[in-house]
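Re: [help] complex structure
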Amino acid sequence: MSQRFRTAQGGRVDREREIQFTFNGKSYTGLAGDTLCSALLANGVHMIGRSWKYHRPRGVMSAGSEEPNAIFQVEKGNRTIPNARGTQVELYDQLDASSVNCWPSLDLDLLSINSKFSRLMPAGFYYKTFMWPQSMWMKYEHFIRKASGLGESPRELDPDRYEHTHAHCDVLVGGGGVAGLSAALAAGRAGARVIIADEQSEFGGLTLASKARIDDGEASQWIENAVAELQQMPEVTLLPRSTVFGYHDYNFLTINQRLSDHLPLAERPASREKLWQVRAQQVVLATGAAERPLIFANNDRPGIMLASAASIYSNRYAVQPGSRAVVFTNNDSAYQSALDLKAAGVEVEAVVDARAGSDSELANTVRSAGIQVINGSVVIDTAGRKRLSSVQVMRLSAEGSSVSGETRALSCDLLAVSGGWSPVVHLNAQSGAKPVWDEANAMFRPGEPTQAQFSAGGANGTLDLAGCLQEGAAAGNQAAIACGFEASTQPARAEPIDSQAILPLWLLPSPYTPGRGPKAFVDMQNDVGAADIALAVREGFKSVEHVKRYTAMGFGTDQGKLGNINGMGILAASMGQSIAATGTTTYRPNYTPVSFGAFAGQNLGDRLFDPVRKTAMHAWHEENGALFEDVGQWKRPWYYPKDGEDLQQAIDRECLAVRDSVGILDASTLGKIEIRGKDSARFLEMIYTNNWMKLEVGKGRYGFMLGEDGMVMDDGVTIRLAEDHFFMHTTTGGAAGVLAWMERWLQTEWPEMEVFLTSVTDHWATAAVVGPKSRAVVSAVCDGIDFSAQAFPFMASKTGTIGDVECRVNRISFSGELAYEVNIPANHGRFMWEKLMQAGAAFNITPYGTETMHVLRAEKGYVIVGQDTDGSVTVDDLGLNWALSKTKDDFIGKRSLSRPDTVRKDRKQLVGLLTEDPQTVIPEGAQLVDDPKAPTPVPMIGHVSSSYYSACCGHSIAMALVKGGRDRMGDTVYASLAGGRVIEATITESVFYDKEGAKADV
Amino acid sequence: MFLIECPWCGLRDETEFSCAGEAHIARPLETEKLSDEEWADYLFMRSNPKGAHREQWLHAAGCRRYFNALRDTVTYKISATYKIGETPPSEGKK
Amino acid sequence: MSDLFQQESPLVQIEFSEPKGAAPRIEEKPFNGYLNLRGRSDHTGFIAGVLKVLGVEAPTEANTVIDAGDNRIYWFGPDEWLIVTKPGQQTRVRNDLLAAFAGVFSSVVDNSSGLTTIHVTGDNAAALIATDCPLDLHPREFKPGQCAQTRLAKAGMTISPLADGSGFELIIRRSFADYLLLWLQDAAIAFE
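Output below.
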């Protein structure tokens, strides 16, 4: 019984290519060119899923992106797609689809019992019922999620690639129906760079399903010619299967192009989707119009679909969407559907038209075709369990507010419904415009654009073919002209259609008592009925945005494309006001769902998610077993474990090696800025807290930078290379920020200062050679420098050579040891490093990483900006007042140091901590309390900022910021940890090792 | 995503820039003579207008120049950009 | 002059291979000299100094690059330029400039190890770079003689079209070079 409902001829399917697919485990056959839905309908499968809340049987409602019901789980495992719209899933060989939201199966759904109690589950049901008591929500939620879920998210790693691209064009055309094609032709012929994107597999839009004629030929031929002409234009890019899903500021639009979902799994290329980020000078929105249904009792049975969808299935997919049809409408367009269905061999029982009369040319053609037209009547209810079996019709009163007379039952398995057309104004609205209600035509039209933008065709509320062709060409011409091209393309011609006005209808009159009758669904995906909206109004919700949130109308994966306009109509009526006054909900990106993969693109994983910055010695560190730590974007050696050492064992060994002999640290990541110009010293006086005017050439000085709020921002050593020339070091993480900060002062506040700044962070590779034997090592490697203590004192800087490469050596220490930082242009970095390793071999030179660096400096009580400070710490809080100039009138942040908050006595101050048990290391970040047994909330007096086990000291050491800490030496405090654990510690000063500083002074 | 006209480099994508907050806040001279209130006003108080806002931007990934922009905080339209030191255009100007 | 055996490119850990399919060719032009030049372009002493050493005036038109004998000068800002020299020439050029600028507010800073140059060539060169560069690379908009500081993925770069129209030159920072090459090579898979 394969494809029993396929028509004998016609359509845009390839009858030579049969395609096998499965739905809910059962095998079916379709044709190339089918969508999943058209193939299922060709096989007579109408019930394709159950609804979200009440588990009612549901069928295919539309033939496009507005589909609320026919959503599927496509494929299994790592390529599974949840909630795919079957109306847009192109059929491919071995496609595997299943219904979402049925349990245990589509036919036997145990939760359909919900349907029987639907009156007891109105809007807000879940919130009202399950949110109390609050503690139980987690338990309820588990069950509710199972009962009301849609598709299932993939649980495995996505095997596909996703691409990104930026693109620029003169004219972006969103939508490739006849209006869009006309616009692209006009702009393209003028020479403009054009991108035209359409969500369907082929260009042509609704006209692909039309038998109309354009320019004296078949419309489909015109479309083919137009596409062929555009393909010939080198500056035109055609993007099929591409949805313009976001319209942002400054004509920045995002397009998701689907590259492979239409292919059998085995034939798919590496890339699944491509995200286009387009900057367009001009935009033409030709996104068409979408038909909306009518709202009556039981309007959701399988077999009820949009009239336009019935035409599309008949004409484009060569499928009979039913055997016996009733067409129900309030406007002219559905008459064409009656003709299309008849031509496809479907028996058309009647056209039920709510309007009292209809005598347009189209209506009369329907009558002449022998189809019964029942005017002045509406469908008031339907019957049929898993498929529509009949509809009930009553007379509509003249003013349209009630129904009367006999109920007339019409037997049918297809009800083709048309409630009018809604321009797809989504992108116009996203771009900042406010859609405008057109009362006469019962539609929101695009609002006045706030960006360089035109709307054309259906998207502009123009529903006839001739008008679409005309507006499209005009918009294309105007857009091209606005970009500076000459454009004068004449529109293609089509026969004008004589039509009769629509009779706007929202909630249809019904014989049932309000709120008592069967559900009339507005948002089918979220099971929101007309009565739910009325209930929301009765409960006091007045704004359309609030009603949306209370009822969940429009919150589904379809974002209310089908139902929202009807919902607003019903809301307006419930509130007794106009639709214009009620307004729309906010249209936001994305127009249709977009994969997370598409947003991520190739920015994934350890290597490409974020830049990995490497020093010149990176390969050496890798080859020598370093483990790395992320410091900002840099990879820095963390420690170098040997022979199965754990972190602590490696750190102990590295620390002792430095203190006893010599270690070597890659310090290349420190920020480095050259400062040049006669006002450099004066500038540094403002930037740093200490004095710089009198610093000798060839000497360096440690300094703090403050924010204007007085808080420590960065620190480092700056060296005077010449009277007008300094070399600044910043923290690794602060480099870019400090440069921008200093540029800002120079460019905006002190432009008269003669100072130039140049970042040289990447130019220099730096090795810190640290420990008692460091002098012997650097002496052996660097030529042309006298390393004696007299000639090369602490904080001095000298140049020499390594091999024949110039190097700079600074005697700086961040460990309390004798130490030299050797700098060389980074292209020679590894060369320098290996020379130092060779020379150090005699002393068992030990490479060490950031962890040992941290321990060594903590033993000396040296702070790390960003670890022991957090943007709320002053120099005084750190106990380092010696770094604040007493003589300068001003520096950045100075005035803040006397603000009342900065001089508070109970500010947190940096102190040392020694634990009661010397082996216990307090976790960094631990909160400190005076009395862990105090009633909650226990007052917190500070926190631990740095904490390590010190092999040199033989006990753990910690630094902490404690309220009034400097006056509390010897006090006992407690680190309060998760799970009630408490560590006792004593407040001490924060220098733990070589308090006299003898070791560096050699 | 804004398109911002750097006074030097022309129209560039927003991702090349960083915003540095309200413009035309001059650092006071003789800061030690200011009252706590006057200093706090300079330090913390910003106009935060609904509508035209003069703000500083840095062409961070480009020429590294700071410049000023007149941006509407409601529509996000930048009606003018101008170099540091130049007179700001009048706020209503489009 | 440095001994070439003693130096390594920032891309020492990158494997360059022949492009597959329609993927563009990506290659490094290592070890150029890079000098950051600062000065006031309306200062006669500065203009004269540049002219004397490089034979041309530093370009004052934004986003342009000019050839100056063996060297190229990129506009970086109203008071900032990048001079790219042949490998090994940077110290001589720097010293000549410093001498010519005696007493003139200026700065010449050697950043030769801080940058490297990549050429991306082939039919899809622009498409590859456009993967995550917001600049309009269309030949109507971006021609030889123009340059731009912009971003590629999440790192900065200076890009200019190659004179022969075969593709683009990218000048990138040492510490980001490895990331950017891995990124470009990954993006190139789409064209294979």
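The mean pLDDT of chain A is 94.
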